[in-house]
């Protein structure tokens, strides 16, 4: 049974001083839920629905 994390909020920060990229933290509940580890990848898919933007994140564990 999935113990889904609901309504977590994170804050965006600059990736570095010279980049326009931003980063955020993956909440620990999501890391535990999907047994994520350093080096794993997250695939991001965006879907507009009505007046919302739905973000689907699919974890991809690193390969050996």
Quick structural gist:
By secondary structure, the chain is mainly beta.
What can you see in these coordinates?
The chain has one helix and four strands; from the N terminus they run ββαββ. The chain has 64 residues and is mainly beta. The longest helix has 6 residues.
Number of alpha- plus pi-helical segments: 1
Cα(first) to Cα(last) distance is 27 Å
Please state the average pLDDT score: 87
Q: Using DSSP, what is the number of strands?
A: 4
Structural class: mainly beta
User: Helical content, roughly?
Assistant: under 10%
Order of helices and strands: EEHEE
The strands making up the biggest β-sheet line up spatially as 1-2
- Large-scale geometry: globular
| Low-confidence runs | none
Indicate the proportion of strand residues: 25-35%
Biggest beta-sheet profile: 2 strands, antiparallel
Using the CA coordinates, give the radius of gyration: 14 Å
Task: Provide keyphrases for this structure.
two-stranded antiparallel ribbon; single chain; 9% helix; mainly beta; 64 residues
Layout: helices, strands, pairs:
Blueprint: E1 13-14, E2 22-23, H1 28-33, E3 41-49, E4 52-60
């Amino acid at each position: 049974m999935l113990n889904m994390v609901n309504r977590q909020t994170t804050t965006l920060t600059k990736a570095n001083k010279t980049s326009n990229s931003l980063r955020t933290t993956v909440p620990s509940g999501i890391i535990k839920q999907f047994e994520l580890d350093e080096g794993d990848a997250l695939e991001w898919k965006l879907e507009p629905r009505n007046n919302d933007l739905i973000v689907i994140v699919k974890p991809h564990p690193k390969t050996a």
